[in-house]
Structure prediction request, 662 residues.
Amino acid sequence: MYKTLLLFAYLVLSIANTSAQSPEELTQYSDSLYRQLQQIKDTEEKALALLDLSFFWSDYNTEKALYHVSASRKLLGDKANTDYYQGLLSFYLGAIQFDIDPAQAKKLYMQAENFLNRDIPTKSKTSATRYRARLWGSYGALLQREGKAHEYVQVLIDKVIPMAKSIKDSTLWGNNLQNVAMALMNLQEYSKAEQYYNNALTLLHDRNAAAEQRFTLFVNAARNALLNNKYTHSRIFLDSASHTAKSVSASSYLPTYYSVEGSYWEKQRDFDRAHTYFEKALVGAKEQRNSDMVASILFSQSAAFQTANKPASAMRKLREVLPYIEKNPSLKNKEMVYYNLATTAVQLGAYQEAVKWFEKHKIVLDTLLADKGTALTLELEKKYQTSEKENELLRVKAAHQQQQLKMQRTRLFAGIFLLTSIVLGMLSLIWYISFRNRKKITAQREKLNLFNAMVQGQEKERSRIARDLHDGLGGMLASVKLKLSAVANRAAEAQPQTDSTMHLYTIIKQMDDSVNELRRIARNMMPESLLYMGLEVSLRDLCNAMNQPQLKIDFQATNLQTDYNQSFLIAVYRIVQELLTNAVKHSGATQIWVQCSEADHYFYITVEDNGKGFDPSMQAPTKGGIGLSNIRNRVEILNGHLEIDAAIGKGASFHIQFELIK
Prediction:
């Protein structure tokens, strides 16, 4: 019944650790830091200590955090205007705005990056790089909050981790390996996440100063193993976390540890022990006033009660979650909780309440789909405006070139008047070459127009069918579901809990699943990721979607750009889709390799399989559809080159090459 055990994701956003369990403890800890600061004699060191104190207060008291930044700026004097310190001040101001105004925080982080990426003095180079790694990590975390999990992972891999490696900071390196692992875990890529967790543990092994980082690593690695159904590994990590917790007894991550322990014992069906740990987690989360964590723990408790076949207790915990998710802007969290409230109400026989939650779930789900549509429209409008600006620039360049050509011709005729015959011969030759080039360009334009017409016609038809499915048949199914719900309510009021009523609610649930499946099919007719997330993401999603238990598809992308025109994007996507479909249906393979890359203005596609192969001199291996002829036509229209390396019993390889014209 429960779609997932993870309602909210928690990421380690800094290497600092403070218990922060009560206002009194906060004050005591801050006073201790301030007394240490007063003992520092060097002005710059004291200014940096004030900034670190500001970072500490940024999570708890904005006014105090801003005060310490201002005090640091005054203490630095004229040095505050140097690139290095302007970068640091922008970074710490961004940390203060992280939760208050994320958009402003992102601007401040990029401002800090601009200062710290300049010609910094050698003595501060390493420190500047460390701050750049931290600001990019925070910037990526804000992207993840916006639902851009893949972009967050890309920032960590492309920006943060290389910087940490360059300055040989194992702690920073290990922390961000863990952040990558957590992002992959939230994307349900548990095997990849496990690799990053193991790499992070190797880096932080036996580092006494990194006890807090190792503790969070053990907890999160245990949670990942649990989600991957590797219970033995999860127990090993939890035992290591329990041992490490003795040295970080004031850690703010203890509630998360208790929550993972509770989920582990739920899987072992030791529900008493599970709820003991969940209650410990709730106490810690409430002491920290962390409402997101409280909601996540309550949701996990409701899942445990559901596993124990106690729907009444599960419903009670779900109702406790409601106030938190109503205040939280995440529509995905609302959709998940409403769905589980509805299905649990059905178990309890509260059919009227179930209908109410199903309706709320449907409204939120429709809003999520509408938001995606709006975002897509804005992205397409942006691409259109960019294209118009580029076309205008090309027109201006062409006019300028024509003017320059006229001037050159005038000078040429004036300078070589006595050599008319030679000039005429040269002009004749130039005319012939120009005429031949014009014929080539005309032929290429005709091919391009044919290609655009074909692709646009196909894609418009796909879009039309997708809209008809979603708006037409989808609306009809939803209407039927609502009418069935009304009939079920009247039947439940007349004769509650009869077999007919229960069957009717089962049919309603099946109807709801049918609507969701219809929407999934409509989205597949025109992949949203291809239009606004780029070629690499859409091809990776395609390969993941076509993976089967008996067939593994491995996708690799190298140096792919983000500015291909839409016609080229659709052509490449459809070529790969057709090749994969042929291989899945007809090759009998257990492994397919897909590679896409760009190098030296050429785009390469390679699709290989270890199946039964075929004779390429014979007809296309597909009997239904247009098979290889469709692929050959698309490649030819784009002036590409296709090579097929295949033999019966030895698999098949398809190699495609396009020249990119900038």
Q: What stands out?
A: The chain has 23 helices and five strands.
